[in-house]
Amino acid sequence: MSLRTRLLILVIAAMLVPAILVGLRFVQNRASEIDAALANLAASADDIASDLNEKIQGTAQLHYGLARARDLDTRDKAACSAFLSEVREEYPQFTGILTIDPDGSLFCDSLRTNRTLDLNDRGYFKEVKGLQGVVAAEPVFGRLTGLSVLQIAYPVRSETGALKFVLLASFNLNKFAEFHDKRLLAEKDILFVDAKGTVLVAPKGGGWSEPVGGTIAGSDLFRFAAAPDGEPFREVTDRGGRTQIWGVARSPSMRKAGLTIMVGRSKDGLVAAANRRLYEDMAILAVALLLLLAGLWILTTVSIGRQIGRLATMAKRLARGDLSARIPEPHPGGELGGLMSLLNGTAESLEQQRAAIADLNQKLSQSQKMEAMGQLTGGVAHDFNNLLTVILGNSEHLADRLAGNKELHRIAGDIATAAERGSDLTRSLLAFARKQPLRPREIDIAEKVLGMEQLLRRTLGEHIECRFAFDRDLWPTSVDPGQLTTALLNLVLNARDAMPEGGKLTVEVHNSSLGESDLDVNGEPRPGDYVMVAVTDTGSGMSAEVVSRAFEPFFTTKEVGKGTGLGLSMVYGFAQQSGGLVQMQSEPGRGSVVRLFFPRIATPPGQDLRPAEATVTQAGHETILLVEDDDMVRAYVENELRTLGYRVIATSNGPAALEVLRQPGDIQLLFTDVVMPGGMFGPELARQATGLRPDLKVLFTSGYSQTPVKTPDGVGDARILTKPFRRKDLAAMLRAALSEPSR
């Protein structure tokens, strides 16, 4: 017996139990469908009753309007009938609209019959004479038309309360039933009877024997319908032996009007529909099982050698830099299929990152530029930095192991250099996206700018005059000093390039209070107190179109190779992330001014987190709990930690890590990613972990973080290792975290 045949026999045996369970489930579904169909009968009857009640209320509104019409307040019978005829043409649901004098005689009607009728014997007329402001309703056969109608009467009274006349609208029950019969797709029978059991509207089906005008009084069906709090539906067998299931509307308003609404369905038809659905489900199950068996049969014919050949071809194309390479589906199961999917996913991710970066300018021009780019780069940074972490770390391993082979050692170094350049690009994008890690602290901005004076003058050159102006008693503000230096240097470099023939540059630092009329570059008001840093040049200036796009990533007016277009984007992102804003003014030939505003703080912020002791890189021996959701990053970091001498317990999510901490065992440090799937991020994991083990040290790592990461006790910013990182950075941060005093 071949391996393929054995596999199929095993699969068939394994599928028998699930197939039986699914079949039983289908049978249960059939019973549920029958129960639902029975409940739907009463629901359909209630729905029809609710619709009819709305029609009664609408008729009451019509009566209320007609009662105030001057054309009805007349004794000209012909004119009154003509007016009602015009009204009736607008409301075809009524067989007629008429007025009745207080003595019960017909005065005028929309049919213009000129007949004389005495309506004193009608129940609705007796009832309505004692009402005021409301309608009375009664189902009857119209004397003028002979049709089954719902008479809806309304008393029209004088200012003294005396009855002037009665407005009567005859609502056509036949048309109403026909509408709902079409809505129910003729799957159900509709029956209207009055309080005496007289049939007003009979079902259209051929199985119903009692005609319109006949009576079902004394029948089981009528006793079921007349019961005030009876069951919702009942089986009734007619004289012909046909079993019908009826549901009745238990509407108080319909019962008060003397109208009973029932919806029925043949029991054979109801069960047949459920049986048909059962047969369809079983057929689908059989087809699915056959397709599954056929698929397994075909899958077993694919040789392992062919799959390995596909993997080798994919690897060669990736080695040549072809990121469009894919292993076409179908993929085999097991480890080979998983590896194929992993390679495809890696190549697709790298290709998407490259395409996204190459196509950023086009995407930005088609969206709301700043915010769209900010959302994109946050996601890019997380995945891209994870990939760069693995690439950079593994390139270090390759460089160490290939030290004896100069050519391969050089290639490993090129990979590391490319990864670091990718990291620099990611940091630039994060600066614009306002998701770069900042270390703000209270500084004197004027003092910081003065400390850069020599650097700025050397950057500008002797052909540009540089002047500084500062306010005294500047307000306190909290800014990242390093990012402030980078932002100011970017502004000065742009100013220098705008003054190739020389000019004048002014750097000012002032207190500034903005109002509702002061707008940022996005046209939004940001009122408040700020410390302003302004850079003004006398260069060539920019047109309004260029100014509107100046802060877009990768937008530049410089020649190719003389600018990335990220300088002003980084400045914009830094100011926004610092809680401030940017303003810009420029005109062709009249220079430019860029103003950065940093918010005034009422009290000094907390102490900045001290930097990692980068010189402490000795190997460790402690036990580290590693939490990282990315499989490749987790495998790389686990290997690095073991190489550094640490014992490692690796998990992929917060709940798994907490389960480890609840078990006995010595763990000195929690090393966790900040952003993880599953609802538990790194800061929440650290808070719960230190609750379980108060002496546990914590070190975070992240490709980006939208908000500053706090320590587990909420005092100050936490220590965080930014991805991608080298082995020496990892070692230094680990020793620094482990050397911290216990809380």
UniProtKB/TrEMBL annotation:
Keywords, in A-Z order: Coiled coil, Kinase, Membrane, Phosphoprotein, Transferase, Transmembrane, Transmembrane helix
Annotated localization: Membrane
Residue ranges constituting the Response regulatory domain according to the UniProt record: 623-738
Organism: Bradyrhizobium ottawaense
Main enzyme class: transferase
Residue stretches making up the HAMP domain: 302-355
Histidine kinase domain boundaries: 379-602
Ranges annotated as spanning the membrane: 7-27, 282-304
Keyword NAD: no
InterPro entries listed in its UniProt record: CheY-like_superfamily, HAMP_dom, HATPase_C_sf, HATPase_dom, His_kinase_dom, HisK_dim/P_dom, HisK_dim/P_sf, Sig_transdc_His_kin-like_C
Protein's name according to its UniProt entry: histidine kinase
Stretches assigned to coiled coil: 343-370
GO molecular function: phosphorelay sensor kinase activity
